[in-house]
Amino acid sequence: MSNTRVDIPAISISRGTTRRSFLTWTAAVSAAAFTPAMLGGTAEAQSSLPAGSLGSGSMRLDNPFALGVASGDPLPDSVILWTRLAPKPLEIGGGMPPVAIPVEWEIATDEAFGSVVDRGTAIADPAHAHSVHVDVKGLEAWRVYYYRFRAGGSESPVGRTRTSAPLGADLGSLSFAWASCQAWHDGYYNAYEDMAERENDVIFFLGDYIYESELKDNGIRDMSALSADVRAEPYTLDQYRLRYGLYKSEEPLQRAHASAPWIVTMDDHEVDNNWAAEISQDDDDPVEFLSRRAQAFKVWWEHTPTRVTAPTGPDMRIYRRTDYGNLVRFSVLDTRQYRSNQVHDDKNSPQDAETADPSRTITGDEQEKWILDGLDPSPTAWNVLAHQTVISDLPRVKDGQRNVSMDGWSGYEASRHRILDGAAERGAKNLVSIVGDIHRNAFSELRRDYEDASPAVGVEFAGTSIASGKDGADSDEANEGYKSASEAFKFGNAQRGYIAVKVDKNEWTTEVRVTDKNTAPGQKLHRRATVTVPSGRPELNVQE
């Protein structure tokens, strides 16, 4: 990597540029053309393309960056830059020719690109839906950068990213957000408009980036222009790519991706509802389901800014760890790929010998050991498990019977005990679980046992959905049921939105951001509650 400054045509940006004008700043970027000489290797790469193919020659595509740009999986010296060339994302093939295309990229320390620190050319391969994952190395730790791409005579929107801080570095505070469950057919992405306006150091997405069910008219979204291929339940590469093309065409989502680096994991709907290892929701033939899982995994990788290795079959390691100095360690989990099948037909049920069976697991043995190894010794002030499904019991009593989810950790009690007991035994400081999945805000103490006076060993924030569940409600029957059935449950809300966090060595502060209506675009979010956790005390202090 070269750290020598290279002067390129400057783009005029006033000192008063706002985040909104920056994030929507595409036309101005297009005025500053890169030249092949500036981007070493570009001319040579393009010379290998067939005549008339996409490049700086005769073919020009209208907005090949229709799905925007993104960055992700930051390290102290590296970040992944992502885009996908798809001028027609709702058509099979994305409107691209079936040839490899050079994509020029550059990264700078200023949004005017007056101080470019690196640039190069990546290849968008049709085998990967013309997606690009650039691992930019040699960056400075804990620094903001700006990046952009060029292909086919067009420049991309500009993205903002930030590297992490090395383990042991003294980091004063961290601001981040997380989101989950963005069912396109259930509502609008109002939460992302709000999220993109904030100065987040990193954003987590905790699962259900797409929903795999057939798209049916429900009066919320206009689906009249969608083709049968787009609306169909996906099983193949082309079908999954169309579904991602639909979701990622949403401008609020693109702006949120461009505002900060993302760390993305998956839950069930990226493949099939409530799948478990080799078992589908409908108990399809395992060979057929693993084939579907392989297609889904590949397309998830194609559309996320992840440094996870591209899968070559139905297996893909997505659990990984990110440290932010001596302040926070994030362990990003996978609670789908290695789990035992759900018991009791995956219906809310009482806990019993089956849920307590020590041979059953939600993480698999290897990942369980990896989780505990990351807590021993505990190198940071806060230890966060970022994952998919709720660890806490969220019980509801019906006809005198205490029922809990069989899909969450409450259906895998032995796994839960091993992690929580192991964290306590290792002296893990300030254990926090952040999850999605349940389409509501549900904040609880983490306890080894939820049916006696077991002390809290950590806290859990289950964050609400971006769109899944339509408008929702400030409080509902489930919320009231949790309050009456569990002393560990401290706050609930079932509206759409996301969670914003600021954490320092002394305190964790969660802000609940929600909207009163999400079945229409252009709706504003507001602060519903603030919840603080003091360092050293696993307690949730709620201010509504």
TrEMBL record:
Protein name per UniProt: Alkaline phosphatase D family protein
Phospholipase D N-terminal domain ranges (all copies): 67-163
Domain of life: Bacteria
InterPro entries (UniProt xref): Metallo-depent_PP-like, PhoD-like_MPP, PhoD-like_sf, PhoD_N, Phospholipid_Metab_Enz, TAT_signal
Pfam families the UniProt entry points to: PhoD, PhoD_N
Record lineage: Bacteria, Bacillati, Actinomycetota, Actinomycetes, Mycobacteriales
Region of interest (Disordered), ranges: 339-362, 517-544
Domain PhoD-like phosphatase metallophosphatase: 176-511
Organism from which the protein derives: Dietzia timorensis
